[in-house]
Each structure stands twice: as structure tokens, then as C-alpha cells.
């Protein structure tokens, strides 16, 4: 009998990750920032985002509590919204193009 071994891929990202886990840091996020990201912003807890008052696009990764990727949004533009994602516990906001250049995919895990 043949059995297949399930492979789990863990990613380590080449960015400094800043954690936003207080009411004020989560509320502010990246709003009003003038220059694009050079690092990542992990918003915890969070299951949806808006791009109001943003001046640049970003890539967005929705994570479960154990950091499994359940949704990715590339090149999210200012004044757009992502409705609540079922099962999401955190959102990782990255520089635009990071999802493609790092080959981030749903089902993988991120080491934070």
C-alpha cells in the first residue's frame, strides 16, 4: 500500500517584522505613513483590514493563530477593504511585491 507523506512548508521572511498588538498600534497601523514599507507589520488580533488614509499599496497575508497562511492579497491599493477572513487571527502587511518574490502561498506556515 502506498502512502503519501504530507509536506508542510515553513517560510522565513527576509523582513524585520514589527508587532502591533495594542489598541493604539493596531488602530494606527500604517495610516498616514508617507513612504512605502521596508519591513512587515504584524497586526494581532486582526481578521480584516482597510486601506483608508494609506498612501501606497501593500501585500497582505492572513494568518491563523499558529501562523498558517489562509489568504493572501497582492498589491492592495489605498482606499480598499478586505472583509473579515474566517479563521484569521493575525494580518501581516508587507511591502508590495513581497508575496510574489518570496513565493508565499496559502497553506504554508510563516516562522515569526
Number of beta-strand segments? 9
On the 0 to 100 scale, the average pLDDT is 87
Number of domains: 1
For the terminal residues, how far apart are their CA atoms? 38 Å
Q: Given the helix and strand composition, which structural class is it?
A: mainly beta
CATH superfamily: Protein of unknown function DUF192
> What topology, given as strand order, has the largest sheet?
2-3-8-5-6
Number of helical elements:
2
Portion in helices: under 10%
In the CATH hierarchy, the architecture is: Sandwich
- Kindly provide the radius of gyration, computed on alpha-carbon positions and rounded to a whole number of angstroms: 15 Å
The biggest beta sheet, please?
5 strands, mixed
| SSE order, one letter for each helix or strand | EEHEEEEEEHE
Low-confidence stretches: 1-5
Shape: globular
Provide the CATH topology: Jelly Rolls
Residue share in β-strands: 25-35%
CATH class: Mainly Beta
Pfam families: DUF192 (PF02643)
InterPro entries: DUF192, Saro_0823-like_sf
Any key phrases for this structure?
112 residues, mainly beta, 5-stranded mixed β-sheet, two-stranded parallel sheet, 2 helices, 32% strand
Amino acid at each position: 500500500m502506498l502512502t503519501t507523506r504530507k509536506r508542510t512548508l515553513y517560510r522565513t521572511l527576509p523582513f524585520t517584522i514589527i508587532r502591533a498588538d495594542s489598541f493604539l498600534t493596531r488602530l494606527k497601523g500604517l495610516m498616514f505613513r508617507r513612504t512605502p514599507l521596508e519591513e512587515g507589520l504584524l497586526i494581532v488580533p486582526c481578521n480584516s483590514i482597510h486601506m483608508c488614509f494609506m498612501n501606497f499599496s501593500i501585500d497582505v497575508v492572513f494568518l491563523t493563530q499558529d501562523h498558517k497562511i489562509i489568504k493572501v492579497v497582492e498589491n492592495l491599493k489605498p482606499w480598499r477593504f478586505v472583509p473579515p477572513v474566517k479563521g484569521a487571527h493575525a494580518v501581516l502587511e508587507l511591502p508590495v511585491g513581497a508575496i510574489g518574490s518570496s513565493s508565499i502561498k496559502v497553506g504554508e506556515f510563516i516562522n515569526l
